[in-house]
Amino acid sequence: MRRKLVAGNWKMHGTRAEAAQLLKGIVEGTDRLLAAELLVCPPFVYLFEAAAGLRGSTVAVGAQDVCGEAQQGAYTGEVSATMLADAGCRYVIVGHSERRMIYGESDSRVAAKFKAAQQAGIVPILCVGETAAAHDAGETRAVVRRQLEAVFDAVGIAAFASAVIAYEPVWAIGTGKTATPTHAQEVQAYLRTLVAARDAKIGASLRVLYGGSVKPSNAAELFSMPDVDGGLIGGASLASDDFVAICRAAGRVH
Ligand code: PGA
Prior knowledge:
Blueprint: E1 5-9, H1 16-30, E2 37-41, H2 47-54, E3 59-63, H3 81-86, E4 89-94, H4 97-102, H5 107-119, E5 123-128, H6 132-136, H7 140-155, E6 164-167, H8 181-196, H9 200-205, E7 207-211, H10 216-223, E8 230-233, H11 240-252
The structure holds 2-phosphoglycolic acid.
């Protein structure tokens, strides 16, 4: 059985004091919640402190991005996967639609980040998802397939034995327009099929998260879908009560 994973993507929010406060609320609220795996992804500058604050808790730390080029060198402004591991990160988000759209990250750059993370022993959370225009044009499957196959081509299917996929329709991110559970299930089952066609065992064990306006009010229904193995939570991960409620919803569904 796949254990559900709930990951909070804080994006570029908060101060050091607010981060500490948020973590405190999450740790207190999720104490003894072992049925689901829990993760927070703060901004880079708060990672060390977050990892220290979460030591001994059930909540892991991840990063929001990583350098795909190298583990060290002349890459001004970048942070390597080795550094993230050193800071206590277990996961890293790669290919978030904000990175793809605002910073022009290509499929091949995302694949390089995926590879660099694994080289340092960090589990990549690969984000895929279609824009509103692609959705309306009926191109959802073609888009997520292209995004996923670019990574298959670069790293091979075996690399997905220690990876997570997050399906995040761009039209649902930060808009309040959550995908219906049926839509998420349909696309996520398709993503699993693409993996399983290359390796049945990896396809069966791979976790596929849903992201895009997950809230306490819709989390349980989304998580009850057979191919929704948890969530990547943006806005609702910034309020500890909401995030805890979402974590609890994941812990209740099997
Ligand atoms: P949201 O963001 O929950 O605020 O829609 C999700 C994400 O971008 O990962």
